[in-house]
Amino acid sequence: MSQNGSVLIIGAGIAGMKAALMLAGASRKVHLVERLPIIGGKVIKNEESFPNMECSTCMVAPVQQAVLQNPDIETYTYSTVDRIDGGPGCFSAVIRKKARYISLVDCIGCGMCFDPCPVSLANEWEEGLMPRKAVYVPCSGSLPNVPVIDASSCLHLSGKQECSLCAESCAFEAVNLDDSDQVIEIEVGSVIIATGADTFDLSALPNLGYGILPSVYSPFEFERLFASNGPTQGEITLRGSGTVPRRIAIVHCIGRTEAGYCSSVCCMYSFKFVRFLRHKLPEAEVFNIHLDVCTPGKSYQSFFTSLDDRDTTMLFTPSIDDVRVTENGPSLTLSYPAPDGNTREIEVDMVILAAAMVPDRGLGEIAQMAGIQLDRHGFVMTVDRESGSLQTSRDGIFVAGTAEGPKDIQNTVIQAESAAGQALEAMSAAAAVNKERASGS
Amino acid sequence: MRAKVGVYICECGPNIAEKVDIDGIIAGLSEFDGFGETELVVKKYGFLCSKSGREFLEEEIRNLGLTHLVIGACSPRDHDSTFKGVCGRTDLNPYLYRIINIREHCSWVIDDVEKATEKAESYLRGGIARVLRQSELFENPIDVNPDVLVIGGGVAGMQAALSLAAEDRRVSIVERSDRLGGRALELSGLSSGTFRGSDIAAGQVESVMGNPYIDVFLNTGVSSVIGFLGNFVIELLSDEDGATTEISSGAIIAATGCAVYDPSLSGSYNYSDRDDVYNPLEISRMLSSEGGVALRSGGRPENIALVHCAGRDELNYCSGICCGVMMKTALLLKESIPGVDITEFYRDICVPPHEGRQLYESVLEAGVDLVRVESAGLSGTTVSFREKSGVEDQRSFDMVVTAPALIPSPDTADIALLLGIPLDDTGFFQEAHRMTDPSGTTTDGVFIAGTSQGPRGILDSMRFARASAGLILTRLIIGEKLVPEVAVSEILEAYCTGCGNCLEVCVYGAIYSDGSKGVSVVNEAICRGCGNCFGSCPSGALRTKHFTNTQLYREVDEALR
Amino acid sequence: MNRQTDTEFTPKIVGFLCNWCTYAAADLAGTSRLKIPSTFSVIRVMCSSRIDHNLLLTTFFKGADGILVAGCHPGDCHYGEGNYYARRRFALLKKVMEVLDIDAERLQLSWISAAEGHRYAEVVGKFTEKIRELGPNPIKGSTRF
After folding, report:
1. Which 3 state secondary structure label does DSSP give A108?
2. Alpha-carbon gap, residue B74 to B76, rounded angstroms
3. Residues A140-173 pLDDT 10s
4. Residues 6-65 (A) with a CB less than 8 A from some CB of B
């Protein structure tokens, strides 16, 4: 097989996009594969990012635009990688483009197909906090701004009944209900895995009431609740009752015991939530039930210490595992062990659980497909660590961002840049080896 | 030559066509007499962004001999680059084209067809008037030097050099001290992960010294830096003989490392040189020395206190690596001094995810007494502390190990000044953007790596170095030219009084003073075209190409007509 | 063309929007099909710091009843700190406006991020209402430029 200088990047979050732009800047062909119908990753779910409380969309949208407009980046949304064969300098990979049923070329993103669709279900991207249709874009401001039809809920595609209202409403003939998966084979010189991470599954801890008590929120649910382009347009109101919360508890370190590590970002996003609440609900009382305050790096602790008693009451507990949240009429009772050994209770009307960052739930499958090993926590394992390498257990395949372990945006971007540099280095090395072999034999 | 402006209105299916009376606009624009002698060609098309639409435009430009192009369609954020591309395939300079957003800002937000039509026509008139005032601008590719200067010969600097050299870049490493290796060399007893810091550094030194692409200047500082991405000239000054060497490079990586906080500066740590109070680096040295860990009096310590977080309150940041270092120190002390009692006073456990719980548990297993405190102080080797429950106590030990924070190395501020990059409020180098561009700086071509940007461990420092190296490898390509931003600022020499206001406000350092002429000059290779300098100029010498006031006034005129 | 009746004042408002944040918010307002008064005209600039006194005063002299300058939130500037400069220049210009007898309320500086499509529509709507209350710009055309 001939030498190939192009790169396959799996995952179009901030890490994948940054690496793609760098490599395209060096005139490398990049194949960027994203399983969601949109690019941007998890960062765009946040209205603002710590510590500067910077608007995430303002930060990421130019990056998304640059990726979509770059002629050297082939972006495959709503796609997965089925197979990676070969080795450094000469991988061949199979990309499966799932049927989108909407043409990326013809659709102009006018959104006229949404209204006619008779199906309504919870929008996963919006954490189920608002409905979507079977034909939908995950969020307002989606890029690419082209909907997708979810075949499992679409009446027509699931075979429940004849319906083509979306196709009829489209002035551009962009809807193709006969669309099918496409399989594309590409050749690349290196691969970067940048598939991101998930948050800890809160339903595993019934003592905290998540999924049972509507006023108990996951971190991303709260992010979307705060987001001006989210389900409530940024109004913080409680699920179900629609009332404005007055007493809010943020519980730290959720899933730390189970995961076996500290994710090092949860304290920071918890304090960000305090800022959000102070900004939107200045009258609300906010409690942080915490264990260790972990704010590593030069700019994080000052973000914490800039909060004062009016912003939040810090309540230390030696055992997060013993925190309980129970229903108490219209509100909630949160009990926790205090340092003196006694159990204390506070009454609140909203609880936000600062869940750990855990390996993406699809990572195991990707690792198996790519033939790479995971570490004991289930993140992608790197080898040759003493050189700061992001090489995985398979030569020529690198990892970047939270697929490698929990981290903040800054370190995610540093890893993306690092992996892109290493991918280049590895391809030259492979080229040199292959050339030597060719001349030697 | 008489201008001939092609105005093409995209129907965008029903998105524009149904909300805006396009034929009415075509008629209105054709009748409008505000453009003097200019000839207008006004047409509509189904989808201008489609392949056929683009080909149609190309043919129109060629066949009709258009001098300017105005597209009435969607947001420039969607398709500006599409139509710039169309111009690029013809002889029409892309800066004589303008896209007017009559969809997002008009047909989608105004329900009334009449009002939307009026608005669209007004926007288009503004676009035509503006484009007539636009000038051709040309890309000006510059030759670049692919070589790199690395300031600092620690693990970050050496890793950056090795990564660059692997891609055939010539690298010069400038190191202030008399050896390569930096702080990691002192970590002979301590490990990072399963590796000794000193082994990592020693391995790198060997690779660097044997690499034909890397030149090393020891006992040398940097005395001047001029230039920009692709073309820097740097003067090196030898500390030994005062000799200067001039080198040129296309990029610079500042990897000047960090220093360690002096706990005795903290009001709560009172001890002197006679007390057995050490930091982990000193313990590491003792561990690898023949005598091992010993008290100043000569004996072995029977009990040792490890006190976390020295400088955390004073500096108002957590270095993020000390907890891990302290736990490893505890394990090593336990191993090297049989029977020693170790008490670790900590405030918050902050260990990187990879180390995880395992480290914490092995410390517990080794029998280290972990005491969580609200605060702790020292008086000699006596530790006074307050527990979370509020209980205050004090205990005396034979030896105390502190966990001083990482602070910027002493020459960070000088280097920042030389390179024209800012420091943040912690005194470390400030990134170009904290999140989206952490390895860059406000001076394009100057990159940062390792602990010069902030506290971090050895492996993270090396990854950071690879990131900066990676950026250089993708920005400066051997044999390729660099194309700077075209729509930049310029200073009209005749009007410039040389007051220097614009130099002050430019965050990129893109403006310099030409002393011989007494004027300020924009370096177009650096300018990004934000236009901030424009408002600072008292004499009207500044012009922001492609966003001149004349151009903007034409848009204003039509908006207000 | 059919214009408004004489009795009803239709304010003419110019919005100078920064390319990176507020212009994107205006696009989002569009894709979300929010309503923007047709009397509001958008002019795109790369950074709010590009807007100088001359441009703003001339726009008033040319007859704008109100001007909205909107850019990224402080700390979010695409160019580092451009919007801080914009803010400082604004404070100064407001004083100049008093001297020139232009109600300082006619000029508004707002920070609207790319995600704030709804806020954009709200700010433009409210500002339009405010200008409607203030009535026509008294200095329109009083100086030739």
Report:
1. coil
2. 7
3. 889 999 999 999 999 999 999 999 999 999 988 9
4. 14, 18, 22-23, 25-27, 49, 51-52, 54, 59-60, 63, 65
Contacts of B117 (CB under 8 A, 6+ apart): B20, B21, B24, B25
Task: Please name the residues in contact with A241: beta carbons below 8 A apart, sequence gap of 6 or more.
Answer: A214, A215, A330
Question: What are the tens digits of pLDDT across the range A406-427?
Answer: 999 999 999 999 999 999 999 9
Percent of chain A with pLDDT over 90: 88
User: Which residue among A172, A375, A388 sits closest to B466, beta carbon to beta carbon?
Assistant: A388
Q: Tokens for B239, please give them.
A: 């500390």
Confidence at B304, pLDDT banded by 50, 70, 90 = very high
Tell me what percent of chain B is helix, strand and coil, each rounded to the nearest 5: 35, 25, 40
What confidence tens digit (pLDDT) does each residue in B94-125 have? 999 999 999 999 999 999 999 999 999 999 99
- What 3-state class would DSSP assign to B11? coil
Please give the pLDDT value at position A440: 58
Phi, psi of B22 (to 5 degrees): -65, -40
| Of A219-228, B185-194, B371-380, C97-106, the least confident | B185-194
The amino acid at B82? T
Residue B80, both tokens: 């500006």
CB atoms B122 and C41 under 8 Å: yes
- The pair of three-digit structure tokens given for residue A69, joined into one six-digit string: 């407009």
Distances (CA, A) of C42 to B264, B488, B525, C22, C69: 59, 22, 30, 10, 10
- DSSP state, residue A154: -
Nearest residue of B to residue A356, measured between CA atoms? B353
Query: Could you identify the residue written with the tokens 């080198």?
Result: B247
How far does the CA of residue B456 sit from the closest CA of chain A (Å)? Answer: 7
Q: Are B101 and C42 in contact (CB under 8 A)?
A: yes
Write down the residue that tokens 């965050």 correspond to.
B507
Q: Would the CATH topology of A7-98+181-196+360-440 be identical to that of A200-357?
A: yes
Per-residue H/E/C for B193-219: CCEEHHHHHHHHHHHHHCCCCEEEECC
Range(s) of the domain holding residue B433: 148-259+409-475
pLDDT at A4 over 90: no
Least CB-CB distance to C30: which of B105, B114, B547?
B105
Is A235 a residue whose pLDDT tops 90? yes
Domain A200-357, CATH: 3.50.50.60
Picking from C20, C75, C115, the nearest residue to A228 by CB comes out as C115
Question: To the nearest whole angstrom, how far is the Cα of C128 from the nearest Cα of chain A?
Answer: 22
| Residue B62 pLDDT greater than 70, yes or no | yes
b/e code A329-353 from CB counts within 10 Å (16+ = b): eebbebbbbebeeeeeebebbbbbb
Kindly give the pairing relationship between strand B244-249 and strand B191-192. Answer: unpaired
Contact C19/A at CB under 8 A: no
Share of chain C above pLDDT 90, in %: 58
Q: Do residues B61 and B78 both lie within one domain? A: yes
Residue C1 pLDDT exceeds 50: no
Task: Provide the CA B361 distance to its chain's centre, in angstroms.
Answer: 38
Domain C13-134 has CATH 1.10.10: no
| Angle subtended by helix axes C22-31 and B76-88, to nearest 10 | 100
Give B25→chain A minimum CA distance, Å. 22
CATH value of A7-98+181-196+360-440 in 3.40.50.300, 3.50.50.60, 3.30.70.260, 3.40.50.720 = 3.50.50.60
- Asked if B444 and B512 sit in the same domain, the reply is no
Per residue in B397-440, pLDDT (tens digit) is 999 999 999 999 999 999 999 998 989 999 999 999 889 999 99
